[in-house]
UniProtKB/TrEMBL annotation:
PANTHER family: COILED-COIL DOMAIN-CONTAINING PROTEIN 17 (PTHR33820)
Keywords: Coiled coil
Domain of life: Eukaryota
Organism expressing this protein natively: Ciccaba nigrolineata
Coiled coil ranges: 56-115
Gene: Ccdc17
InterPro entries listed in its UniProt record: CCDC17
Keyword Coiled coil carried by entry: yes
Signal peptide (residue range): none
Protein name as it appears in the record: CCD17 protein
Length: 138
């Protein structure tokens, strides 16, 4: 329940998830063990009508191992999703920087164009055609 609450609240720290997993394993071991805990006190072992079969404890251990492995895989999946999200965020930050640089360059080009319009064209004499003299009348 703690792990689910942590995940639903947006938690994704792998170290905390690992600690929660270890707590879950310990709690399950205590629940399955010969002595349980209740309010901090040890309870007497439950009296069973018939003794457990030799394979039942093995099945409980196998089930616990599968649950632990399943939890580990879920945590690994969550860590991969978090890493993918961080990479996507890093990519969007880079794209944002490029957009800002492009906007700055466009503003500079606009300022240069405005400056050119105000000062007029400054073409060198070598680019301009030679002046033509008016034609003389006969």
């Amino acid at each position: 329940a703690l792990r689910l609450a942590y995940l639903h609240a947006g938690g994704h720290n792998p170290a905390i998830l690992d600690q929660l997993l270890q707590l879950q394993v310990e709690a399950t071991a205590l629940e399955k063990g010969p002595l349980g805990l209740c309010g901090g006190r040890r309870m007497a072992p439950a009296v069973r009508a018939e003794p457990p079969s030799p394979g039942a404890q093995g099945l409980d251990e196998a089930l616990l191992a599968v649950e632990v492995e399943n939890q580990r895989l879920e945590d690994e999946l969550l860590a991969l999703k978090a890493r993918r999200e961080r990479q996507a965020n890093a990519g969007s930050r880079a794209a944002q920087r490029h957009m800002e640089e492009l906007a700055q360059l466009q503003a500079e080009v606009g300022m240069l164009q405005c400056h050119m319009e105000q000062t007029g064209p400054r073409l060198s004499q070598t680019i301009l055609p030679p002046p033509m003299a008016p034609q003389l009348l006969p």
